[in-house]
Fold this protein.
Amino acid sequence: MKIITILSLLLTFFVSCTQMQEMSDEPQTYETEKQRVLTEKAEDKDMNLPEGSSILKEGSGFTLLGALGLDSSTNFALNSLTFEVALDKISFMPLLSVDSMSGVIVTDWYSLDNGQSRIKINIRVIDQEMTNESLDVTLFTQSLDSDRWVDQGVNSEQSLKIKESILSSARSLKIASGL
């Protein structure tokens, strides 16, 4: 009797595992590329969203960007256009902190040169004027020496290039949209 009970439990277990495997083999489809990227970012932050969650739908009141703290449309006192452009410009880098209320974006370290050097960027949108004083960009660099990272300091030249790129794009978008 014990053998039959154990065998039936094992059979149930294997059938359940097989069904779970079949479910995970199905490719996930997305309505838009933005939806795919947001879903991947949510998974990176260990957020498990139910299938068909409205948080990924365009125009919903509650958004994944808001849940991740990346939505600058809610009570952002500064120029959200500059903030959004800055966020877009560094979207290839892992984000450590994004605070749309204060206009601060901090990236994590991003490896370059086959892992021999890395950069980290801090951005602060100060006001909504889109002048050189409206944005602060700091790019930190480190290089790998044997098995430890050595600070190379702030790269002012690259910081300025990033700042100019963000401001130029934000100004162009403002002009194009007639804001």
About this structure: The helical segments are 2-24, 33-44, 64-67, 80-89, 156-177. The CA atoms of residues 70 and 98 lie 6 Å apart. The beta strands are 95-99, 104-107, 110-112, 117-125, 135-145, 148-154. The chain has two domains: 1-64, 72-177.
